[in-house]
Amino acid sequence: MAIHTDPPASGFRPSMLINDTRYRGLTFQFIALVLLIFAIAYLVSNLFGNLAAAGLNISYDFLGESAGYDINQRLIPYDSQSTHLRAAMVGLLNTLLVAFLACITATLLGVIAGILRLSKNWLVSRLMSIYVEAFRNVPVLIWILIIGTMVQQLPQPNAFRGENASASMLFDAVALTNRGIYIPGPVFGAGWTILLVVALLSVAGVVAYRRFALKRLYDTGRILPLVWPSLLILLVPSVLAFFILGRPVTLDYPVLRGFNFGGGVQIGVPLIALWLALSVYTGAFIAENVRAGILAVNRGQTEAAASLGLRPRRIMNLVILPQALRVIIPPLISQYLNITKNSSLAIAVGYADITATLGGITLNQTGRAIETVLLLMLFYLIISLAISAVMNLYNSSVALKER
Amino acid sequence: ATLDDVKQRGTLNCGVVTGLPGFGAPNANGEWEGFDVSMCRAVAAAVLGDPTAVQFVPTTGKTRFTALASGEIDMLARNTTWTFSRDTDLKFDFIGVNYYDGQGFLVPKALGVTSAKDLDGATVCIQTGTTTELNLADFFRKNNISYEPVPVETQAEGQQQYLAGACDTYTTDASGLAATRATFENPGDHVILPEIISKEPLAPLVRHGDNDWADIVRWTLNALIAAEEMGITSANVTELAASAGDNPEMNRLLGNEGNLGEMIGLSNDWAVKAIGAGGNYGEIFEKTIGENTPIGLARGLNAQWTDGGLLYSPPFR
Amino acid sequence: MTMTDDAATARNRLSVSDEIAIEIVNMNKWYGTFHVLRDIDLTVMRGERIVICGPSGSGKSTLIRCINALEEHQKGRITVDGTVLSSDLKNIDRIRSEVGMCFQHFNLFPHLTILENCTLAPIWVRKTPKREAEETAMHFLTKVKIPEQADKYPGQLSGGQQQRVAIARSLCMKPRIMLFDEPTSALDPEMIKEVLDTMIELAEEGMTMICVTHEMGFARQVANRVIFMDQGQIVEQNEPEEFFRNPQSDRTKLFLSQILGH
Amino acid sequence: MTMTDDAATARNRLSVSDEIAIEIVNMNKWYGTFHVLRDIDLTVMRGERIVICGPSGSGKSTLIRCINALEEHQKGRITVDGTVLSSDLKNIDRIRSEVGMCFQHFNLFPHLTILENCTLAPIWVRKTPKREAEETAMHFLTKVKIPEQADKYPGQLSGGQQQRVAIARSLCMKPRIMLFDEPTSALDPEMIKEVLDTMIELAEEGMTMICVTHEMGFARQVANRVIFMDQGQIVEQNEPEEFFRNPQSDRTKLFLSQILGH
Amino acid sequence: MSDTHAQSVPFVRESFIPEAPPPETDTGVVAWLRKNLFSTWAYALLTIAALYVIYVILAGVLPWLLNGVWNADSIQQCREILAGERGGCFAVLTERWNQLLFGFSYPTEAYWRPTLAFALLFVAAAPVLFTSVPRILLVATLLYPFAAYWLLWGGTILAPLVGLLGVIGGYLVYRRLIDRSFAYGLLGGIVAAAAIMWLGGFVVADQPRFLSLLPVQSRDMGGFMLNMLLGVICVSLSLPIGILLALGRQSSLPIIKWICVVFIEFVRGVPLITLLFVANVVLAYFLPPGTTFDLILRVIIMITMFASAYIAEVIRGGLAALPRGQYEAADSLGLDYAQAMRLVILPQALKISIPGIVNVAVGLFKDTTLVSIISMFDLVGMIRGPILASTDWGGVYWELFGFAALLFFVVCYGISQYSQWLERRLATDHR
Ligand SMILES: Nc1ncnc2c1ncn2[C@@H]1O[C@H](COP(=O)(O)OP(=O)(O)OP(=O)(O)O)[C@@H](O)[C@H]1O
Ligand SMILES: Nc1ncnc2c1ncn2[C@@H]1O[C@H](COP(=O)(O)OP(=O)(O)OP(=O)(O)O)[C@@H](O)[C@H]1O
Ligand SMILES: NC(=O)CC[C@H](N)C(=O)O
Ligand SMILES: [Mg+2]
Ligand SMILES: [Mg+2]
């Protein structure tokens, strides 16, 4: 074998920038980068030019100034003297709150509707198709407005007043009004921490029991009942502790006071409207995902499991769902993303999410358009990236092993 | 400069409210009408000679300032309160008050409330991004009572919420309340509470920095006010302008004496056109929000100074 | 044809008892209004090995799926191991745990390892302790010659290996009867042999088997009987030798000429 | 083995010139850190027909893909028809228009008809007028015996037909060298022959060919040389007769016993 | 025949068993009901629950629909006519249908123009959507944008004609130069088109009255027409941009890839409403001083950006679904990157992506309602603004929102049925 060398390294010629695969890519990238930098520089110089001409500047100082407006729904202490930054935090938490609630209910709704749509019951499956198609094909904004109008039709608190009131509370405990839903709220007395500990322990107990049952199944083949013992473990100690400790937690019932109900816990009507609208709208999409996921599991899987003697419920739990979930969860998570993004329409029903506080009132009261819009986008971007990161983690963890 | 832009374009871009009866709202045929709208038309007439050469740009409380700042509109005539920070920090120029107003509360009669101080614990509908929103917070804080805001974006929404009983009271400029109430099926079932909790001088505004343009708008408004004072109406303006009369100020205003028009870069009959567009201040008031309209507002503070009001146009000299 | 002798010997080694394993009497089935199985009568003795063949759409799959209650039949009676198949869930359970089935497309559970595939049913249906189930599984995996793949996932195996896992999975339930629906038709040619070898081994141990297949070599080697179906009916049945050498019905002749010709 | 004589005759009919078609010197390639081709030296004369075989993963595909610049090599030199393969685009273009390639999975363009598949590159790369390109295409389609399929889409053809179209498509560019990467291994057995026949015909016309295949009959019949690769190296090369009769290296022996055995 | 068992193995069927109808218990209405509605107790309960739900809905909606008032001048009149009975006040639709559909400032006498443009849309879209439609109609698709522009915005016909000529000229030059290389072709085409349009601009300025329709400004477009307009324009524009982004994201050049990834992920990470805020309140600051362009144009830019990021992701899926062999085969035939993409890869990838693209289009079309939040008078803005704010119709919610929902439903359901049909077809005829 003769020793050969590489092709003679010819000197660099400018034409190689276009014709040589090694440099061509670099050339293109360089051009793209230069164009990009120019574009950005152009926009930014315009920005500063325009700002200077209008005598404005970019400054985030306004975040420290007092906001001056009130917010009806807040998870952290806030009043009109708090800063704009705090108002933004209130809005942020409200966005997260409604998104979180809507994700849960939309999932429930979607899973139920998706499964029912596959039901062999003709009527039910038709009904679910109508639900899915109706909600999927109409803009979410219209649904938010419609549902917002719908909850307005609930009775006013006034209707609960007087001898022959036209509306009445459910079980004397729950009032559905067009200002919000009032439910009894807990009042914590002495010893409630002990109760909490007991409750937490029972939850741990249930988990332990389920572990034990599975282990026992593996060890001996005996299947222990799950539902009743779990319930017992969950409830009995807490109930006992509740009475032994002398009812450390009591309920505060809502009562009509002044213009509105007082006491108890109030869930504001904007929250309810937005929550409901996002849930039913997204639920329709999730229903489709669920249906597609279940259909994606080959029919052969069910048959193979059945011919091994597994019962329908076990087939669902052990064979179909684990596979369907792989198909369902990625689009499900992007639906969660959509919920979060769609919650920015909150202002249509008067819910104080971040778009309404930071991107609405603050923007408007301070006139700091660029600053607030940038902050707003940044916030949504962070949520989206966080959710996508979770999704990627999930995807790589469940990816089926292939050759 | 804005004036050149407007002339070149041939239309005036005027920001107005998305819909507040009496002040600015499209009628069934889609033509904009109202008190603020008339201001736009007067400026268009003064500048372009054609009161219909206006492109109305509806704005919400939220979008109005950015629309003006970004140059999308040439002026904003949209029941906007003249405040310090809007004038200075937001870099606008308010060109003069066209309606002296204050914030009030609208409540259903059946509620039995007679004073705003009785509103402890009430639910209040409030347009976001307005001065009234801030006043509201101040008022309740000062009186140490609580309330729950229901934020709405537009007048229409506020009305919808209020009528549905989603709030106990609706608060905004008293004029706005009157306009709102006027559209109710049974206006008599609702009262405007006696307290006026703030000063709301409503004023048209333009971008800061273009003083020539600001002057044009400012003096158009003054022309309308002065016209009323001098008894010039849309009916007699052409007649009066035809020949110089014996009132030198009127002569100057109508272009028969001096060259005021030239000084602001317009033709000399600019004021004639402005007044001809919709009449003088008083006429506009009566036609759009006055006592004989459903809105039924009395002149009150907005009467001429000669009648004990605050309207007081600087002299045309 | 040198194979014939070997095959006959092999087959003769396999014993058939007098006990009835499966009895099908006058069974009919419709899909909607489509009459897919017509008056099927078939008795399978314990230890018998039956091969079913016939043109596509003739109802072969439907027939063996009825035996396993994967499809419901509308008329007639199916008795498996003395249990009459009815819509009673208990009954169906009993029959399914007696009868193992292998499909054309293996239908392994892709989210479980090979071992878990094999232990799933024993643990949850037979309530076998896990350790024991795993031992059994390893035993059968060894039998189908892939014990070393136990911890892989089905997607990581070749088609032939997957089908052998499917057989092992069925065997783990210790069925007394095995049904095969074209177990080799989705496989590449090199892999067919390994699966057939496994099946032959199974046959030699005396398992009762019904196998839908067009592998005529296999039929010759292990079947006691070959059944030819067409249009939902059993058209002909015979011992393999006779069946291939001397088909009676015209349709059988036509069919055989087609599949042997190519 | 009666084929040997025929094969030898057939092969001897084919002439090999003295011109060098491909020269590979000391070529090395890595995928990441994985050394997939190691010190490959190979000279192919014009008119030579070379068969490459070897176990899976030994780098056969990678080798011939390097010749076509589908993969970049990192060390050593490849000269095709006098042109040294470098990263210069012009060079790559020139080499690709000299070298035709057929893949295991045909890779026909499913959205184009057979004729369009064949005329695409002549029209766009060689700038041949469309009519002329179509005539050439029909000529080569006739040669691979499927002129009547010209207006169908690839999906409507059998695998064997598709592979022949793929060959015709390459030929339409009038290459001087053809590379084949396991052209028959994705085909059903019946179809293998028709593709091999086409390739043999091509070989008889004196086309320079490098063919990765395990069809030993083909190798015997047309190859001038058989190259055995393992672990990225050329382990053995010889005339086919000698290669099969008398493999030198142990690895070759093992490999041959496996593929000939089954 | 029960003797067909091992003891008497040979058996040959003598007589063919004729097809028989299934047993009675398996057919007929009763069997259908039993099987589909009452097969088990749980199902029966479900059925009853479903029936109850249907009853409740119908009991609520039917009287409202049937009792509806279609002729009245205001809600007050509606109430008088209804005299306390339940019923919808659909008069608002008959009174304000034109505003709902066209916005309140589109000239009434020109309503036929958007209507015609809408009808022509079907002609133009047909050859793209259905392969069975004669190819020659693609000419209509090409002409459509220009015709629609003329119809909607009015003005002289010369303006769209010049545009069309520019495109045709550009294309001809492109065809001439494409033989040299794709880049030359593209550049030459663009230059030629720009030159023709620039020159044509003088002609247009010179002859503003030639075959002129009443000009309408963008600001004057509203109602459902605005939704359609935004939807159609933005989807069409976002397709090419989406393709470029997808190719960029697939690129092996890290910087280009990185730019595309950042753009796509950024746009997909924020809600459309924030982008609309940008269009509304921020964008003007980034443009050179003195440029004021139409809100509608700014909105189109932002929605197009938004849509192209989503479309890019769909197309990326299509590209990824193509086997590597296609790229390699194209390479080995000597096609360069542009040729391989244009002739081999994209035609296939786009075909796979069509259902996904249609879904994005539907979503986008629905999202056009968001412009009402920045006080544009699209269908929803129209309802929430001028109509509900008017003295006459304040308080008529259900009828208006129902109407809006219905319009959107008809369009979106239609499109999504098309996409499902397409998916089914792609699933069956990919050979
Ligand atoms: N679920 C079903 N609904 C309606 N018809 C069906 C169904 N399953 C099968 N059929 C029809 O019943 C007939 C018999 O089908 P079957 O699968 O039993 O045939 P086969 O003999 O197994 O054919 P192959 O050799 O193709 O597997 C066919 O005509 C088929 O189309
Ligand atoms: N793109 C790639 N990146 C990393 N490794 C690769 C890549 N392509 C191939 N390899 C590895 O390089 C080695 C040689 O691959 P190659 O395809 O050349 O083998 P082969 O001899 O053609 O095998 P086969 O007979 O299976 O086609 C294999 O180990 C393969 O896993
Ligand atoms: N109601 C309004 O839209 C205006 C309210 C108030 N005058 C303001 O300028 O803030
Ligand atoms: Mg079958
Ligand atoms: Mg290979």
TrEMBL record, chain A:
Q: Which Pfam families match?
A: BPD_transp_1 (PF00528)
Entry's InterPro entries?
AA_ABC_transptr_permease_3TM, ArtM/GltK/GlnP/TcyL/YhdX-like, MetI-like, MetI-like_sf
* Keyword terms of this UniProt record: Amino-acid transport, Cell membrane, Membrane, Transmembrane, Transmembrane helix, Transport
Q: Which domain of life is it from?
A: Bacteria
Primary site of residence: membrane
- GO CC annotation terms, alphabetical: ATP-binding cassette (ABC) transporter complex
The molecular function terms in GO held by this entry are: transmembrane transporter activity
Instruction: List all membrane-crossing ranges.
Output: 23-44, 96-118, 130-151, 187-209, 221-245, 265-287, 373-394
Entry-linked SUPFAM superfamilies: MetI-like
Residues forming the ABC transmembrane type-1 domain are 92-391
Q: Does the keyword Flavoprotein apply?
A: no
Task: Write out the GO biological process terms.
Answer: amino acid transport
> Could you say which protein family the record assigns here?
Belongs to the binding-protein-dependent transport system permease family. HisMQ subfamily.
State the name under which the record lists this protein: Glutamate/glutamine/aspartate/asparagine transport system permease protein
Tell me what organism the protein belongs to.
Oceaniovalibus guishaninsula JLT2003
TrEMBL record, chains C, D:
Q: Which domain of life is it from?
A: Bacteria
The record's InterPro entries line, in alphabetical order, gives: AAA+_ATPase, ABC_ATPase_HisP-typ, ABC_transporter-like_ATP-bd, ABC_transporter-like_CS, MetN_ABC_transporter-like, P-loop_NTPase
Q: Which PROSITE patterns match?
A: ABC_TRANSPORTER_1, ABC_TRANSPORTER_2
Where do the ABC transporter domain residues begin and end?
Answer: 22-256
Q: Name one Pfam family in it.
A: ABC_tran
Gene Ontology MF annotations: ABC-type amino acid transporter activity; ATP binding; ATP hydrolysis activity
Concerning its family, UniProt says: Belongs to the ABC transporter superfamily.
- Official protein name in the record: Glutamate/glutamine/aspartate/asparagine ABC transporter, ATP-binding protein
What organism is listed for this UniProt entry? Oceaniovalibus guishaninsula JLT2003
TrEMBL record, chain E:
Q: Which organism is it from?
A: Oceaniovalibus guishaninsula JLT2003
* Protein's UniProt name: Amino acid ABC transporter, permease protein
Q: Which GO terms describe its biological process?
A: amino acid transport
Q: Which family does it belong to?
A: Belongs to the binding-protein-dependent transport system permease family. HisMQ subfamily.
Q: Which domain of life is it from?
A: Bacteria
- Which spans are transmembrane here? 41-66, 116-144, 150-174, 181-204, 224-247, 259-283, 295-315, 395-415
Key words, A-Z: Cell membrane, Membrane, Transmembrane, Transmembrane helix, Transport
By its UniProt entry, which InterPro entries does this protein fall under?
AA_ABC_transptr_permease_3TM, ArtM/GltK/GlnP/TcyL/YhdX-like, MetI-like, MetI-like_sf
Q: Indicate whether Glycosyltransferase appears among the record's keywords.
A: no
Pfam families associated with the record: BPD_transp_1
Q: Which residues are in the ABC transmembrane type-1 domain?
A: 224-419
Location comes to: Cell inner membrane; Cell membrane
Q: Where would you say this protein principally sits, based on its record?
A: membrane
Q: Report a single Gene Ontology molecular function.
A: transmembrane transporter activity
What are the record's GO terms for cellular component? ATP-binding cassette (ABC) transporter complex
Membrane topology classification: Multi-pass membrane protein
